[in-house]
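Notes from the 1:1 (GR / supervisor)

We went over the backlog. Supervisor wanted to see one worked example end to end before approving the batch request, so GR pasted a single chain during the call. The sequence is below; no edits were made to it. Supervisor asked that the structure be written out right there so they could see what the output format looks like.
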Amino acid sequence: MNVMPEPIPFKADWPDADVRFLRPTLAPAPLLPLAEILTPHAAEWVAATAEGAGAPADYVLATLLCVTGTAMGNARWVSPWHGWTEPPTIWAMCIGNPSAGKSPAIDAVLAPLRRAEKPLRAEAEVKLAEWQARDKLAKLAEAEWERKVKAAMTKGLTPPPMPSDADAGTAPHIPRLVVNDGTVERLGVIMEAQPKGVLQMRDELAGWLLTMEARNGGSDRAFWLEAFGGRSFTVERMGRAPLTISRLTIGALGGIQPDRLSQLLTKTSDDGLLARFLPIWPERAPVRQPRRFASDTLADEAMTRLTGLQMPQGDDGEPRPWIVTFDDDARALMNEWRTACAEWEAGADGLLLSYIGKLPGMAARLSLVLSAISFAFDGEADPAQRQITPAAFGRACHFLESYALPMARRAYGDASGTQAERAGRRLAGLIGEMGWHAFTAREVRRMQRKGLDSMAAINPALSALEDADLIRAIPEQIAAQGGRPARRYLVNPALHEVTA
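Structure output shown during the call:
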């Protein structure tokens, strides 16, 4: 009797797949050009502070840029030319795992700012205590006046005018240079009382950014979009009159872990808020005993100079920024920079495209902030006493081109590719999660995953994975009951081997 051999299972012959859709590719961290962008004393202070904190100098510099911009605030703005002004506001996002050294670096730079805040608060607290004493007497005087008014009205007499000592005036404001968890309403009150600005410091940025849309019908997000640009904003308050801030200028700083950043990249609105941050994700600093420590005296003197910058008075009697202008050669360099940014935009998509679109304004801001750092640490002239030169603007452009832009590509990773690449990564993740060895386009659509919830989004993903040899279309067959055939795909086993 002839025995039929067992059928040999079919095994597709797959070429080598493009696994960049399966593993997030983390670009190497760019080298920090510290000595090329900072004056000598400032560069030495950053390097020594980082060594003493056991942290990368990148985190220290990012925090210093943010703190300097905030301390200067609305006292100095920059203008490349008439009709274009920028506040010195810098937002920084320090990315790394819990032991990467983010907090020690941030704390080391915030320490002199907090020390500069202490005498301001102490002086204001003395005035507040004096006001509170006057307020008690004013309330007694007001009560006595109300008694006399009531008696006069009872007798049909003209009530007496309110005495001046019945009004203690407005309570003195206690300055806050740094807040850790300020609500929009509270920050509005602070900005009304101290128009130079304030810094919002968050230990963990992700939770703040993820919940921003849900609060107050999304108005919190609108508030922060304006806070970066220094624009006018009206803060609505329950039970109180609205506050209108003429120049809403608030710095933002904090740390975030890489996996939490991934959540932000997929869950937050693409309204440009995330692209306003300088994302800083350096390599870990080597573990070693510090051999040098930064000078507290130098830092305190620098912060005193920065916080001492005052807003001049406008023609209307209200404080306004002093506008620091570009000279003619710096304006020409700005035009070259804008041309370069436009060329980079042509090859970008998604979050990276938004980030590059903000680089001209960021370069203007950084030129002012770097000038302020040289004023604070190395005794150069107040930015209000000089124009932005090609040398000052060139330092900002060099930092952004050689460091910040490569760092953004590293940090934003998957979110900086083309739309088809991002869709392809989502689809590859879904296939691995479901354990599919074959699937149809309809099955993908039925899952209703973000970015894969319509055929318009699914088709580019299918094409991207086909081009990467991760899936292969099976020739369409008409179903027995007729109708449009389902598009079916085989999955390269390498996809599951890599994602396992």
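Supervisor's comment: The mean pLDDT is 88.
Batch request approved.
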